[in-house]
Amino acid sequence: MSIKINDRECEAHIGDRLLDVARANHSHIGYFCGGNAICQTCYVKVLEGQELLSPMSDAEKSMLSDTLIREGTRMACQTKIEKPGLVRVQTTVEEVKQMVATNPLSAPAYMGKMGWESAVKFTDTIAFQARREHGEYKLELWQLFTDVIVGIGDAIQLVVDAVQSVFITKPAVPTVTQTPGKSEACCGSLLTTQTCCTTGNGKTISPDIVKLHQHSTVACN
Fold first, then answer.
1. What's the predicted TM-score (pTM) here?
2. Range list for CATH 3.10.20.30 in the chain
3. Secondary-structure class of domain 2-166 per CATH
C-alpha cells in the first residue's frame, strides 16, 4: 500500500510505523531520539485515515495535550499502520515551512502554542519517562545511542542530497540549429536546410541526434 506524507507518495506495509515509512522513503520527519518517544520531534498531523492507524499509545497520551489530540496530532514513532487504505499526514516541519512561506507573521503564535501544549503535559511527560525502567517502553542505553546516531546520520544525508540536487551541474543538452537557404553536409548528409547538432564545441552525433534524423527521414552516417 502507499500513504502520503506531506503530499508525497510513500510505499508502506501493514505494521510499519509512520516514522519508518518516512525514513525508508526519504520523507522528512524529525526523530532526534531515534524513534524512542523522548524528543517529541516526530509530531505529525493525520489529515486522513486516522481509523487505519493504531490506537493512541501510552507514550502519546502522556506527551500529547488534549488539544493536539483533537487536532489529529500523533507521534510518528508510536503510530503504526493497521489497515489498508488511504492515509495522509503532514509533519510539523512541513506545516511550519508552509506557514513561513505563506504567512510568516503567524509563526511566532504557532511556536507559542506548541510551547504551551508541551508545558501543560510536562508533569505527565516526566512521569512517563521516569517509569520507563520496566515494561514495554524500557530503554536500552546502547540501543538508544545507536538509534540516535542513525537518526543524525539520516538527517545529514537528507541535507547532503538536497545540496547536491541544487549545485550539481547537469550535462549539456545538444541543441539543434536551422539556417534556411543554405546547403551543407551535416552528419554525412547533404541537406537543403542546414541542420547541425552541437553542444557548443562543434558537431556531434548522439542517440538524440540519430532520433532527430530518423524523424526527419534523413540518414545520419
1. 0.63
2. 2-166
3. alpha beta
